[in-house]
Amino acid sequence: MAQTRQSFAGAVAVLLPLPLGGAFDYARPAGLALGAGDIVRVPLGKREALGVVWGKATGEIAPERLKPVIARLDAPPLSDDLRALVDFVARYTVHPPNAVLRMVLSVPEALAPPKPEIGYRLSGRPAGRATPARAKVLALLKDGSPRKLARIATASGVSAGVIKGLVDQGALIAEVLPADKPGPRPRPDVNAPELTQDQRMAADALVGAVQARRYAPILLEGVTGSGKTEVYFEGIAETLRQGRQVLVLLPEIALTAQWLERFRTRFGVGPAEWHSDLGLAERRRTWRAVALGEAPVVVGARSALFLPFPDLGLVVVDEEHDGSFKQEEGLRYHARDMAVFRASKATCPILLSSATPSIETIANVEAGRYRKLSLPARYGAANLPEIAAIDLRADPPARGAWLAPGLIKAVAETLAEGEQALLFLNRRGYAPLTLCRACGHRLKCPNCSAWLVEHRFQDRLQCHHCGHAMARPKACPSCQAEDRLVACGPGVERVAEEIAGLFPAAKVAVVASDTIDRPSKIAALMRDIEEHKIDVLVGTQMLAKGHHFPMLTLVGVVDADLGLDGGDLRAGERSFQLLMQVAGRAGRAGRPGRVLIQTHDPKNPVIAALIASDREGFVAREIAARRQAAMPPFGRLVALIVTAPSEAAATGTAKALARAAPRDAGLTVLGPAPAPLALLRGRHRQRLLLKAPRETNVQGVMTDWLSRVKIPRAVRVLIDIDPISFL
Fold this sequence. Notes:
The protein is an alpha/beta fold.
């Protein structure tokens, strides 16, 4: 939808993506038209900086003292809804808008048109003296397509001198190659699938919302394997017919491989991608294509929310419950919630899709703020798997092992049927702890209050918080005893080792973020699974959601108790969602699936609800408990994290904040207390927690609170509105 931009006749306020605390006023040079959202170059001290015209000048500085804007860049202006998002995220997270703008202008190279590149093609004139090398070049260029010199040299296997010689002879002529041409557009009707009745009803509702071109928050709730993706693909198709753009947010890069293949099958070509694994050139091309409206569909991680779409017609947040949508470093925002705001400003629908929706989203549905669409059954002939518990007190693993006899028997039966099994343990590496049998010393990270995790496949010990790594020592660092260090507890590598010993003929693969860390590796893994080159998968939460493996019929949860007591209000919800999602990988095609959950506490409410397939009951109890305790989403929480190079500085500042804490009725401040990770990346950490009624303006409370305390230069105070993690 085209937007009418405000233009300015006088001085303008320019927001810079720098830690400056707000916009600066600049004079508008005569003859230079400037409007809201224009990207400009301005003087800043003795240098120049990029910024965005944010509005009229504040008037805080006399007009005659203002420095003029240097130039307006040849880049599309930022849309009204994107600038509104920047301001909203800044207000919500209690951060300066400059910090948010930095995420928008994350690829400065994209702000200028691409430099022209020179290619070479045949001229039709003879090449002079014939040589084998020249013949290779001439044969390559027979198709008439111009190519860059480096590509000709690589494809022909010749030196650059051979090509330049042909240019000097007049056999090749140079021409300017076209700048980044947009690729083929997805075709909305190329391969439309047959939908079930439930899918068609949900898809028609979503298509209607897209056609209405109004803001409409919608929850698409469906059991695992019900075909939620096919439903929102219909919404994408309708948006494409209207010539508008689509943003799809996925929580993890691991989910993109199969998703991208399904998209290509449905629409003929792939979408644009946006995630941390892209190189600078690809990020530049994608950012500019989005800004120019040449990228109809973008799939990406949470940072894709800040891309400069000029005409959003639909936003999709897949696996909306996933905690990965919360940015936990620096500026702490929740991409799902901020995406809802952006959709409201872009006046387009937003679809939140999940088999296990978050309590926050369910509460919004119950309050009438969101519409709900349901897919209660699996697609086609597939049925939901049977779920049963293995009580480790009655059926314990052998000494030194981690798999109970009942689970081992089930794996054997699955392999005998020519089917695949998945063993799930949400713990990377070989073992979470290494200790000395002689003196009891535990190997810890020097930078964090965390144990070093053994990664036996890579022959190292590593901290999963700061990345510190070291070779596994032969002697204990404390008592110098040799050969007395022992691995304690299981990680996925250790479970894979156990399975390989039990089933030596089986092909076993370990799937974790430190072994499968690139889209190309993920795509190769998915092909191997689909082609049945793997019999048993041993993996972390990377395999818990979004994947479809027709021959995978058994899921074994190695340690269902891990995470049940996470020390925060969402521990039970997170565990239920994760285990329900991983259980949903079993039996997704015509073959029946089963799920075996190893636990020491089968009567735990989370485990009992899973076995009984009582998601509604679990959610109802969770909501009732939250409401009674006035906890989110029925109350507000804000975390203050104080970090400093010294423990004394962190403790002193935290105590000063506690003394200045707000005393208003209804507000409760807990702490200060050392954070569970009291040392992280060499900085000592203290935490305080504000609990407030839902209607409280917690941002105003935090701003007033912090204004009453002088923070030392070496100390950082981080604000986390609506925290997800309490580490």
